[in-house]
């Protein structure tokens, strides 16, 4: 192919064509060999995160653009999430996407230009979780003032656990510590911290379920000593933040120094500036508490005495008030009125009793034996006279009723169908029991039932006569 153009037109070997796939594969091989590792700086645009976990975006500058892909196996190690408009520096290799014949950069490492990758990832995670409401003040639970059992999650080899135990043992003898060791930095530290949080919550739930409430965990300390942002990064991971938020036990974050802030600090129920400060929160100094209680008791006692003195003075002042004299005068007036009313009531009762005695005397006189006998004789005479008159009236009414009944019975007997039959008449009925009144209502040969005065006949019609 290095021959002059005119000569190549007549060279059979040079004119042998290749397929598009072969040419694309050759270009791909040349690109991947030539640009096996290259750093490219540009602005991200058209960023897309697929369900497969792969990232696709375009790197561009003022004059050109480059399609880029970052596969899931690579982007899992990237601390921040790319977004449109972000200036980045990407390391990768050039390749060709053969179905479209387009070359692209396969990104293996991605770093933001300007802000550090960890700081950017911190801000992005913080903004996302804050938008979800994980930092809301209403989600914060109060830390018990006098916890009996404290769960501690930190490294077993760090200074944090020693500081926490020293402070608790020095300040109180009533707080028990349940220690769940976990690595706090490096690969695998995130998973260990999450598992330790779940372990303490399961222990707590099991104790409550079994009725062992004294073994329940009242508060949990999650923390470590100071360090760089890389050292503290475990507590900026989203999974750790969500584990703290879903914990059934209130969580105190105690990470780094007072100036260090992590995502765990924002999501925890309470932030302590250092692990030692967290221990001081859960283990109030017993001597200080006793002194404080004694001071409060003295203050309360003095306040009560002051209140009593003031109340006594007010009572004395009120007792000497002219209002009491007015009340006493009204009481005397009321007592006089009561005495008068009582006298009037006694007089009324006496008069009422006298009237009742007079009425009883009159009634007793009217009920004397002689008077009673006279009244009985008069009543007996009236009763006998009324009884005789009553008997006579009853006899008269019975005789009249008998006569009316006899007349009605005679009239009824005269109208009875049996009396008619006794005179020689008969009642004719067809087979359905209907009364026959006309000869046209029957046919020759039909059966007829005749009811006589005594007995009945079943006949059959042999001849009929028309009515005249």
General description of the model:
With 468 residues, the chain is α/β, with parallel strands linked by helices. It folds into 5 domains: 18-114, OB fold (Dihydrolipoamide Acetyltransferase, E2P) (Beta Barrel); 133-282, Rossmann fold; 288-313; 373-414; 420-460, no CATH class. The chain is 48% helix and 18% strand. It has helices at residues 5-8, 20-34, 72-75, 117-132, 159-171, 189-209, 238-245, 263-267, 275-282, 286-319, 322-366, 369-414, 417-422; strands at residues 38-49, 55-60, 65-70, 87-97, 102-112, 149-154, 176-181, 219-224, 251-255, 270-271, 427-429, 447-451, 456-460. Strands 1-2-3-5-4 form a 5-stranded mixed beta barrel. It has a 5-stranded parallel sheet with strand order 7-6-8-9-10. The chain has a 3-stranded antiparallel sheet with strand order 11-12-13, with no helix packed on it. A hairpin with a 4-residue loop joins strand 4 and strand 5 (102-112). Helix 5 packs parallel to helix 9 and helix 6 (189-209) runs parallel beside helix 7 (238-245). The longest helix is centred in the C-terminal third of the chain and has 46 residues, at 369-414. The model has no long low-confidence stretch (mean pLDDT 83).
